[in-house]
Amino acid sequence: MRHPAAPRVFLRIAPRIILSTLLAFSSLLASLAAHSADAATRLRIAVVARDNGGKPTFIGSPQIVANDPVFLAALKQKNVQLEWVPVTTASVATLVNESFTNKSIDFAFYGDLPSVILNANGVSTKLVVPGGLGNNTYLVVPPGSSAKSIADLKGKKIALHRGRPWEVSFGKLIASQGLTLKDFRIINLNPQAGSAAVAAGNVDGFFTLNDALVLEDKKLARIIWSSQQAPADWKMRAELWGSADFVKQHADITQLLVTASVRASHWISQEKNRDGYIKDQALFGLPEAAIRRDYDGNKAGWKDYWAPLFTPTLSQHYQGVIDHAAANGLIRKKPDVKTLLAPQFLPVALKELKLESYWKPGT
Length: 363
Hints:
Blueprint: H1 6-40, E1 42-48, E2 50-52, E3 55-57, H2 61-66, H3 69-77, E4 81-87, H4 92-101, E5 107-111, H5 112-120, E6 125-129, E7 138-141, E8 157-159, H6 166-175, E9 185-187, H7 191-199, E10 205-208, H8 211-217, E11 222-226, E12 238-243, H9 244-249, H10 251-269, H11 274-281, H12 288-296, H13 302-305, H14 312-327, H15 337-340, H16 345-352
Parallel strand pairs: 1-4, 1-5, 8-9, 8-10
Antiparallel strand pairs: 2-3, 5-12, 6-12, 7-10, 7-11
Helix pairs in contact: 3-10, 5-14, 8-12, 10-16
């Protein structure tokens, strides 16, 4: 039997319940809005850095961006806090990919192969600023080796850091001779360990970056091949990549970063700044003479070397990276190369900086 007072009690309590619920819901919305605002005011960029007295030190284009007064002022006006996330040279790919996966960074200056692997595994990032024409790679052998080409090393031990960007360059080199990774005894070593191994004669070859020049200068190894004279898409590439979600949700902040990066490329590309830039590069330990030899051996001139343009060669390069990763078991599903590229910000930057005609469109 229903109690006669129940309806009146409910009517007295119900408004309180409704009011309490509305207040709680409003509080939740305010909390979510505040969290969203906080997230929007942070711009987190991963960069290869070294610790210098407790303060991260980095070089190259990121260093110029980090000290760009126009960029910093624009971020301040938007109440955006810039945060540089340092990563070590020994584990750039792993740290950056993990950071993109757990959403602890928004952008990163890093290499091509790790980027492709990340996207193939379902974490979407976008290349927003190309890194010029790319970095050189080298094949070295012990000083007393009789090897003159990669073909002479078939069946031999070669130190190669698997999964790092220069693996693709190695893949192009061996493919040009009708060879595959299975034709060699690949020893997975990072550059530091690889240098020690070739110097000690524990491997028959070592595939690496411009640290090869230092090994040769110290007579610890001999260079038998470099990408300096190879086709442009054979070079190792490192570019500015952004989280696809951040790029979509914060196109205005992304544009500020892209414009600052293009401004940095323009500064570096001017001949009057060449010596200063190279001296700064030497702060990371590679001798200035070796850095100059690395750049001087390229076919492109200094200005064109730094062109941050989206070109057919760039797309061709990334298709090659995707094909290499799939053929060698680094990925199972091939991403569409078009989904990796976000070229829409570059024309805006070039126009704003009045650089539309500064770099000639590449092929």
